[in-house]
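A note on notation is needed here, since sequence and fold are reported together in a single record. The reader may check this reading against the record printed directly beneath this paragraph.
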Amino acid sequence: MICRSSFPDRGSVPMKTASYLILSSLMVLFGYLVFRVKVRRDYERRERLSAISTLLECLVFCLHANLSYTFLPARWPDLPSLPDNEFQKAAGLGILAIGIVVTLWSMISLRLRDTLGQQTRGLYRSGFYRYSRNPQIVVYGLVVIGLALLWPSIYSLGWILVYGAIAHMMVRTEEEHLGRIFGSEYEDYCVEVPRYLPWP
C-alpha cells in the first residue's frame, strides 16, 4: 500500500513528474502482466478465469482508480473538494454520473459471471452490445474523463491514457478468447459492431 504521506495535500504542488511517470509505467506493466499473461493463460487453458485472475483484474482497476491521487487535491483516501467553477462542476459530475450508471447497467445486462470472465454462456448481442462490443469499457471511460474534468491537469490526462492502455489490453485478451469459443459467429459480430465506439 502506498503511504498516506506520498499524496499531495489540497492546494499543494503535484507529485514530481518523474515519480508520476514511474507510477504510471508500473501501472501499465502490471496491467500487461495481468491481462496479457495471467488472464490470457487462464483463457487458453481453462476457457474461463480463475478466482485469482478475477481478483487481479479487479486489483488493476482499483490501483488505477487510486493512481488518481497523484493529481487529486486531497490525501488518500479523502475525497477532494469540488471545483468552484459551476460549469466545470456540472460537466464533470454529469459525465461521471452517466458513466457510473451506464457501466453498472451494461455489466448487469451481461450478467456478473460473464462480466467477470468466469463463464461464457453465449455471445451476448443485446442492449448496449448492439452498438459496441465493449460498452462497459467505453462508459467507465466516462467516469475517468468526468474525474479528469473536475480536476484537470497534465497528470489527469496521463491518467486517462493509462486507463486506455490497460483497458485495451483486457479487451484484446477477451477478443482472442471469444474468437476461439465462437469462431465465425464472433468474427461476424466484430464486422457488424465496432470494438469501442460506433462511427458513421
